[in-house]
Design brief:
- It is a single chain.
- The chain is an all-alpha fold.
- The chain has a single domain (35-182), classed as Up-down Bundle (de novo design (two linked rop proteins)), CATH 1.20.1440.
- The chain is built from 6 helices and no strands.
- The chain is rod-shaped.
Length: 190
């Protein structure tokens, strides 16, 4: 009778260990999937940011022909593009993206003052392409932030937080627009 009880306890203990191992594997794989989803979402943003940065020199050259005295606007766009190209981390890219978005708003505000420029086919094509890229960036940001939210929630919840700690997983940063970038740019013609 005692031997049967010991066997039953050992069998129950072994069952608990097997269930714990299965739970660990399921959570581990889930966390890896979420981590990869966040990385993929960031890669999609990065691709669109690169496309936009590559388009900017053509846009500047087109506008320069019409608005020669708007030197500071061109310099700001060029500096912002350089910051975007040299940014390494997600946080640095977000800051550079915000700076570039503001500079581009200023550039398009300047373009509004030149009807011939607005009618130029090359400028319109570049503007349409840039608008399409901006739309893809907005979608990619949303997808990335949704993925980050899901990842961050999961690594904070029990029991996934224990496994996330074992895997050295840390919360990811959201791709945010800074408050100052939400303001409409002010353009002065001198």
């Amino acid at each position: 009778m005692v031997g049967g009880l010991v066997g039953l306890v050992l069998l129950g203990g072994a069952g608990i260990v097997v269930l714990a191992i299965i739970a660990f594997i399921v959570y581990y794989n889930s966390l890896i999937g979420l981590k990869n989803r966040v990385e993929n979402a960031w890669a999609q943003i990065d691709v669109q940011l690169k496309k936009r940065a590559d388009l900017i020199p053509n846009l500047i050259e087109t506008v320069k022909g019409y608005a020669r005295h708007e030197k500071s606007v061109f310099e700001n766009v060029t500096k912002a593009r350089a910051s975007m190209m040299s940014a390494g981390s997600i946080k640095e890219k977000a800051v550079a993206d915000n700076m570039l978005t503001g500079a581009l708003k200023s550039l398009f505000a300047v373009a509004e003052a030149y009807p011939q420029l607005k009618a130029n086919e090359n400028f319109r094509a570049l503007q349409e392409e840039l608008t399409a890229i901006e739309d893809r960036i907005a979608y990619a940001r949303q997808f990335y932030n949704d993925s980050v939210m899901r990842f961050n929630q999961t690594i904070q919840q029990i029991p996934a937080n224990v496994i996330a700690g074992f895997m050295s997983l840390a919360q990811k940063d959201y791709f945010k627009i800074e408050e100052k970038e939400k303001e409409v740019p002010k353009v002065k013609f001198e």
